[in-house]
C-alpha cells in the first residue's frame, strides 16, 4: 500500500466540511442536556410559569436557582442539626 498524500489545498476543505458536523453534534448534545434538566425539574418549572414556553436560558437559570436553594438548605441542616 502506498501512503496517501494530502495536498495543502485539500486539508482546509476537509476541515471546513467537518466543522459544521462537529458543531451540530455539540449543539445536539447541549440541547439534549437542557431537555433532561427540564424533565428533571418539571414540577419546579410548572410552579414558576405553568403556561409559558421556556427558553433554554430560562431552563438553565431556573436550574441554577434550584441548585443554589438546595445547596443552601443542606448547609443550614448541617449547621443546625436540631432543624432535622
Question: What's the number of helices?
Answer: 3
Helical percent range? over 70%
> Describe the biggest sheet?
none
Shape: elongated
| Oligomeric state of the chains in view | single chain
Average pLDDT value? 77
Uncertain stretches of 5 or more adjacent residues: none
Domain BHLH: 14-70
Protein name: Transcription factor HES-5
InterPro entries: bHLH_dom (IPR011598), HES_HEY (IPR050370), HLH_DNA-bd_sf (IPR036638)
Organism: Cyprinus carpio carpio
Structural features, described:
The chain has three helices and no strands. It has helices at residues 10-40, 42-48, 56-79. Helix 1 (10-40) packs across helix 3 (56-79). The termini are far apart.
Q: What is this structure's SSE topology?
A:
Layout: H1 10-40, H2 42-48, H3 56-79
Helix pairs in contact: 1-3
Keywords:
mainly alpha, 74% helix, elongated
Give the structure's gist in a few sentences.
With 84 residues, the chain is mainly α. The chain is built from 3 helices and no strands.
Amino acid at each position: 500500500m502506498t501512503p496517501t498524500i494530502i495536498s495543502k489545498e485539500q486539508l482546509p476543505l476537509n476541515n471546513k466540511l467537518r466543522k459544521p458536523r462537529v458543531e451540530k453534534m455539540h449543539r445536539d448534545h447541549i440541547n439534549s442536556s437542557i431537555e433532561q434538566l427540564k424533565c428533571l425539574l418539571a414540577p419546579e418549572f410548572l410552579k414558576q410559569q405553568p403556561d409559558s414556553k421556556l427558553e433554554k436560558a430560562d431552563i438553565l437559570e431556573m436550574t441554577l436557582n434550584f441548585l443554589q436553594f438546595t445547596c443552601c438548605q443542606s448547609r443550614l441542616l448541617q449547621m443546625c442539626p436540631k432543624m432535622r
